[in-house]
Amino acid sequence: MRLNPSLLGAIYALFTTLFASGAVWLVADALKDGDGGEAWQAVAANLLMIHGGAAMVTLVLLGALYPLHMRLGWRANRNRVSGCLMVTINGLLILTAFGLYYSGADVLRAWTGYVHIAVGLALPILVGIHVLLGRRSR
């Protein structure tokens, strides 16, 4: 189920922004306790704002994928396993982001952070697999 090139470009741009802002945030967060910590703290805060803003737009586009891509792919019986994995992984990222933002418990917040980071870092590989499998099934 091929997507409109402009929608596909927007999805790739947003996923790239999310990945880059999250990965660079990890570095900035690790460096904020060392020399130049205040500067890294500011960088980390700005990266989180970018990450959160891109995530909000991505939620809209993920919602648009249901009628434009997922429903049609399901009916055509194509790429179901990796498609279900993509829905599950993105749902997990959404739930853990919610937990990171709203959780008051330190233990739960740490656990959701680790899961969010691990899944977020793995997402580009999973998207690549989904795309390759989809191209093969045509």
Please characterize this protein's 3D structure.
87% of the residues lie in helices and 0% in strands. The chain is mainly alpha-helical and 138 residues long. It folds into 2 domains: 1-77; 79-138. Helix 1 (5-31) packs antiparallel against helix 2 (37-75) and helix 1 runs antiparallel to helix 4. The termini are close together. The mean pLDDT is 94.
Features:
138 residues, mainly alpha, 4 helices
Structural class: mainly alpha
Beta strand %: under 5%
The value of Rg in angstroms is 17 Å
Percentage of helical residues?
over 70%
What is the element string, with H for helices and E for strands?
Answer: HHHH
Largest sheet: none
Mean pLDDT value: 94
| Number of DSSP E strands | 0
Q: What's the total helix number?
A: 4
Based on Cα principal axes, name the global outline: elongated
Please, how many domains? 2
Uncertain runs are none
End-to-end CA span: 9 Å
